[in-house]
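Figure 2 data, in text form.
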Amino acid sequence: MNRCFCLCLMFVLPILLSGQDPFFIHFYGNESAFNPALVGFKGSTSFSTKYKSQWAAGTVPAFRSAWVNFEESMPCNLLDYGLNLNYDEEGVGIFRTYDIGVKIAGTIPFDIGRSGNNIRLGLSLQSSVKTIDFSRLIFSDQLDPKFGLVDVNGDPLPTGFVPPEETGSHSFFTPSVGFAYRVLLDTRNKRSPTLFFGAAVHNAYSLLKDPKTGHEESLLGIGTRIPSRYSFFLSMDLIPYLEKGGDFLSLKMMVFNQRQAGLQYWEAGGKLSLNRALAGGIFYHFNFPSEQGRNTNWITYTLETGSRISKFNRVEVGFALSHNLSGLKNKVGPIFELTFSYHLGKSMICGFANQDNDLTEDGLGCPTSAQTQWRKKLYEGIWYKTTNKYK
């Protein structure tokens, strides 16, 4: 009975979500996926891979997502950029989504008194394709009220549904635009807090109106348009402890909201980090009541570790585990994400242009926000004195 329920759940869920985009559930570690203005804000040349699994239930396969991402911070230029490849697989019908995109963000730096300020504007140009295996789906005319998927003689019930000749949609355009504001409140104080907030609109516009190449994601060619997705985040970085030798504790607190097609959820929480070598966090995800029934709220636990392996090289590994607290908590398993990132402390493009390309020097010496000497761009201080060897 549970297996039958889960099979129906995995088939119906994408329909109930009104064609929602596949996306990662946790903001940290996926920043530029939620807001293109955050591409390259880490202050490195980064290579990242990510894997997510969710909605596993008994013999029903989990929804799976993978992300390959490249981002480059350019201290010699106002721009930062990135490239991404995404893959998402859902349900027993093996509903797949493939994305490829390029992201670019420009920075407007300025000072107000003793504070350093950056306005970041971002754009993502992404193309997507969806496919499905219709032979794996179960339709309503295949269900017998007494015998299930077979008739009285035990023979499988046929369906009157005739699948289209093509098993996938045409490629369609899914651009995003974003805005972010970052401020280091006191540039002369190594323990200065950093405030960061922004908003983004995904599926913002279709360049082509032709349903074969425009903003349509329908697998049946019925003209389904992708609803826009909106996101907002607010983050505060604090330094509760900083000693003269450079050891420090940092605390990140964050609120994040995302909505699409009348559905939305919130994420709120924080993580504590020791010298950017080890960090742990806890985040609560919740949403407002829907007409369909009970909410599914969940809590996420995160663990991250990272280290500089040379002056210009750093590796990071992150793990997030989420447990449902209501709604589907007795039907589906936990959600987890695994991330691996490699950071290079030099900008390749700035190097090719024979300009300053070193990203490891902290102009402000602040553990959470490093400022390049050129045009005062604010980046994450991931290179800040993580070991005595590289001070």
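Caption note: The first strand starts at residue 45 and ends at 54.
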